[in-house]
Amino acid sequence: MTDAPLHHDIVIAGAGPVGLAFARSLKGSGLNILIVDPQPEEALALPAFDGREIALTHRSMAILTELGVRDRLDPADISDLRQAQVTNGAAPHALQFEPQDRSGGRLGVLVPNHRIREALYRLTVDQPDVDIRAGRRIVQARIRPGTPRKPGGAALHLDDGTALTAGLLVAADSRFSTVRTQLGVGADLHPQGCSMIVCRVRHDRDHDHVAAECFDHGQTLAFLPLNPDADGFRSSIVLTLPTAAAEDLAQASDAVFEAELNRRARGRLGAIRVISPRHLYPLTVTWSRRF
């Protein structure tokens, strides 16, 4: 005999910000929810710094406040974004983005991605109606068509042999979703031939909480303003280059990488010192063939 499949109202593939926020938004709904993620529990509970600073609009921050996330964030990790400037090469003028009066002088805020993930996990893992299966993968997924007398849903198998059924299956396992592939939903992936290097830096001049993005020949360089600490002014730098050049620079020595950043930044914020590990992200556009 085969054990009957375990049934959940909702199964979510992926315990990233999207999957966790969706589960958190259903608190008190009475729905039985299972989240499946291949990362070990330790990595979900204490995500490592990944270099990414997430720009959040006022509405996005309001949603995170409603979910209880803001109360779990250290105020030092919430950096104001008061203005944004976009420049084109050596052109003397910049395209300016400024807040409306009702925004309190901010376009939004910047919050480290790993801090958002950590806060969402700590909130969701204690939610009575949620079970999180860490270190497990969905290896088979199919949709069961419904009838007027019998609702449909999803039939799933995990890599440990567990059989599941669900009224709703949510694929929140990134733009490279394996669940999407298992369900036969095709997607076109278009590598852009560029990759971005992200890291935190310290610099001599105050950024005044202004984000700057500089489009230049063969590169794009963005400065994202972070809150200062006891040692001075800080920003997150995003340098986008053709992939081969980005890979070479990401693997260069600390001294070479820092010198190259200073050369490319052209003294915009004064002397720059790298204060975090570098992270490399290839840029790919993903477009689903069905919605």
Can you walk me through this structure?
- With 291 residues, the protein is of the alpha+beta class.
- The chain contains seven helices and 17 strands.
- Strands 5, 6, 12, 13, 14, 15, 16 and 17 form an eight-stranded mixed sheet that branches. A six-stranded mixed sheet has the order 8-2-1-11-10-9. A three-stranded antiparallel sheet has the order 3-7-4.
- A hairpin with a 4-residue loop joins strand 10 and strand 11.
Biggest sheet overview: 8 strands, mixed
What do the pLDDT scores average to? Answer: 94
Query: What structural class should be given to the helix and strand makeup?
Result: alpha+beta
SSE run? EHEHEHEEEEHEEEEHEEEEHHEE
**CA-based gyration radius:** 22 Å
Oligomer: single chain
Poorly predicted segments: none
Number of helices: 7
Helix-residue proportion: 10-25%
Strand content: 35-45%
Shape: elongated
List the helices and strands and how they pair.
Elements lengths: L5 E8 L3 H9 L7 E5 L3 H5 L7 E4 L1 H9 L12 E3 L1 E6 L5 E4 L10 E5 H12 L5 E5 L3 E7 L8 E6 L4 E9 L6 H5 L4 E17 L6 E7 L2 E11 L2 E11 H8 L3 H12 L6 E3 L4 E10 L3
Parallel strand pairs: 1-2, 1-11, 2-8, 5-13
Antiparallel strand pairs: 3-7, 4-7, 5-6, 9-10, 10-11, 12-15, 12-16, 12-17, 13-14, 14-15
Helix pairs in contact: 1-4
